[in-house]
Design a protein that fits this description.
This protein is an alpha+beta fold. The chain has helices spanning 45-55, 73-83, 93-99, 106-114, 141-151, 160-164, and strands at residues 3-9, 12-19, 22-29, 91-92, 127-128. The radius of gyration is 17 Å and the shape is globular. It starts with a strand and ends with a helix.
């Protein structure tokens, strides 16, 4: 049985779906939620609490069960590796491909990372391009930057104003 609930966060409304085996998905919602209920079941409470703690800067890792059973094996392997990236740190797609034993699979790693059904908890926002650029993010690079700034504000500071003077 699946349960859906919503959490308001600094990056917008999050829709969470949990199964009897763990968290199946987190989706950033911008519209279409009619009856967002304040009620959170006992099963959902640990997920809500940990995400709230993360956004308050009190939690650096998660310890709730995850349900990745619907994903292909390669995607599960990539996401298990992404899950180990420490809070406030980043890794490149190529680094992940190398650790998985196939240095030429950076693009496949990127595709699997882009289909991460559990962003934030499986921190796909911590995966960047090989030269350090913030490459695509399923929910937009603006949200990716906000998550990285939350975790490490000394490094991820918006610097667009530096370039505006050059235009």
């Amino acid at each position: 049985m699946l349960e859906t609930f919503y959490i308001q966060s600094p990056v917008g409304l999050l829709e969470l779906v949990i199964s009897n085996h763990g968290l199946k998905s987190i989706t950033f919602r911008t519209e279409g939620v009619q009856n967002e209920s304040a009620y959170i079941s006992e099963q959902a409470k640990p997920y809500k609490d940990q995400i709230d703690e993360y956004f308050r800067g009190e939690r650096k890792s998660f310890n709730v069960p995850l349900d990745l059973s619907d994903l292909p094996p390669f995607h599960r392997e990539v996401l298990k590796m992404v899950y180990t990236i420490p809070y406030g740190k980043t890794r490149s797609y190529k680094q992940i491909a190398c650790v998985l034993g196939n240095p030429k699979a950076a693009r496949a790693v990127g595709q699997a990372n882009g289909k991460n059904p559990i962003p934030i908890i499986i921190p796909c926002h911590r995966v960047i391009g090989n030269s350090g650029e913030l490459t695509g993010y399923a929910y937009g690079t603006e949200i990716k930057m906000k998550l990285l700034e939350l975790e490490n504000p000394q490094i991820y500071v918006p610097q667009i104003e530096l370039f505006e003077s050059l235009v």
